[in-house]
Amino acid sequence: MKVSNVNIVCKHAPGPTAGNMMYYMSAPPRDTATKFFYNRCVFTGDLISIGGIWTKFQSAITDSILKNLIWFRCLPKETNVFAGNEHTISNLTWA
After folding, report:
1. What span, in angstroms and rounded, lies between the C-alpha atoms of 65 and 25?
2. pLDDT tens-digit map of 15-53
3. DSSP states of the chain as a string?
4. Could you count the other beta carbons within 10 Å of the beta carbon of residue 51?
5. Is it the case that residue 88 has pLDDT exceeding 90?
6. Residue 22, Cβ neighbours under 10 Å: how many?
7. Are 65 and 22 in contact (CB under 8 A)?
8. pLDDT band at residue 11, thresholds of 50, 70 and 90?
9. Rounded CA gap, 13 and 25, in Å?
10. Which of 5, 13, 18, 46 lies at a C-alpha separation of 20 to 30 Å from 85?
11. What does the alpha-carbon distance between residue 89 and residue 32 come to, in Å, rounded to a whole number?
12. Is the pTM of this model over 0.70?
């Protein structure tokens, strides 16, 4: 999907919940000075949390979850990541 000059990829990405979605957005840079961090982002829903992926989930890790993690891993390294869940302290304590 495209809105103005922003490309949006809506991806069904089951993780801890079956209906999870991820949204990847990219846009051309406004100028060469800002092209490195400002034109890509992904909202991961509950597939990714800061400090890990999850420690408790409703279902076993399936091929679908692994495929979505690989898709996430293949995004450009300049992509800003916005995790949908906030479990930072519990994830880092667990780790």
Report:
1. 21
2. 777 788 999 999 887 666 555 556 899 998 888 777 666
3. -EETTEEEEEEE--SSSTT-EEEEEE---SSGGGTTTSSEEEE-TTS-BTTBS-S--SS---HHHHHHHHHHHTS-TT-EEE-SB--HHHHHHH-
4. 16
5. no
6. 22
7. no
8. very high
9. 15
10. 5
11. 37
12. yes
Which residue is listed with tokens 């916005």?
Answer: 82
Distance between CA atoms of 59 and 42, rounded to whole angstroms? 24
**Partners of 12 in beta bridges:** 21
| Tokens describing residue 92 | 């880092």
> For residue 21, what are its two tokens?
């979605």
Average pLDDT over residues 53-72: 71
Place of tokens 């409703």: 58
Of the candidates 76, 83, 87, 91, the one whose C-alpha atom is nearest the C-alpha of residue 13 is 83
Overall number of domains in the chain: 1
